[in-house]
UniProtKB/TrEMBL annotation:
All copies of domain GFO/IDH/MocA-like oxidoreductase, residue ranges: 164-231
GO molecular-function term, one example from the UniProt record: nucleotide binding
Domain of life: Archaea
InterPro entries with a match to the protein in the record: Gfo/Idh/MocA-like_OxRdtase_N, Gfo/Idh/MocA_Oxidoreductases, GFO_IDH_MocA-like_dom, NAD(P)-bd_dom_sf
Entry protein name: Oxidoreductase
Basic and acidic residues bias locations: 324-346
Ranges where the Gfo/Idh/MocA-like oxidoreductase N-terminal domain occurs: 17-131
Region (Disordered): 322-346
Organism: Natronobacterium lacisalsi AJ5
Amino acid sequence: MSEHKLSTSTPMSRAVRAGVVGVGAMGENHARVYSELPGVTLAGISDHDADVAERVAEEYGTDSVPLETLLERCDVVTVAVPTPAHHEVVSRCLEADVHVLVEKPIAQTVEQGRELARTAHERGLVLQVGHIERFNPAVRTMADLIDDLEVISLEAERLGPPIDRTAPGNVVFDLMVHDVDIVGSLLGASPDSVAAMGTPDGRYATATMEYDDVVATLTASRVTQKKVRKLSVTARECFVEVDFLEQSVLIHRDSYPEYVNDEGQNRYRHESVVERPRIDNGEPLRHELESFVESVRSGTEPEVTPEDGIEALETVLAIDSLVDADRSSQDHERAQDPSQDREVEI
């Protein structure tokens, strides 16, 4: 191990040198936050698009350099390249003894994820998976509440309009993966069974998962003309609404019904009580990178481990295979009946 590199067994006290590999929309935000964090120096960025890399480097006062050079000057990096490149790029970073935060999903296949986890553990490095919603203040508040609830069901909606990009997205991997991870972390379990279906174009999908006695229903969409990021939890004690965008939590409880006397007239009243827990709002990405850097500094396990990322990936792959089977079934039906060959409207 190079002298300046850090093992998780050796806590650090000096400034952490950070880099970003892949500075598309998400990667650029990582560069921005690293440049703002106290005790962190943005040591450089790397991207296959030289023009983009130069622009981002100039914006945040750092250098655009090849990956090999970046790894020589960094203690930690964010890997925000397309998913098919995760395994190769993260492997190179770990083999250079650099701690890694890799954007979700951890890899393209479960075996690739397991291989990355093994490499990180063997080399004593932090490998954190970028499931950013874990660091949303509203989700953290929900995590504090859920242990005291007898949960019956959860329902997550991650909806929005089409995005402006050339490559078509798959909402199961792009969007639903967030809620798969959140539900799994809140319940502390993997699903016992999964059912799913979606549209042939991959822009809308819904999944139902069973966790012992709890049912979770997830919906992801790129065809909904309103941006929605919500989680609802039905428990025997209350109903909880979590809004990721507003970073708010509402707890609905029923009051006992009663008759009240109003100027000599008896009236029936049954009101709902709504609680609003205090939430320390903040940017989830900043919380995520602070947590990552602190794990490196202290030599402790990251808040979102490689195993967490692998578990989410396994579930997402299962959902996607079911959605793909549903797509194939729809294609077969259209082939049998040409009149059904029309664009799906949601």
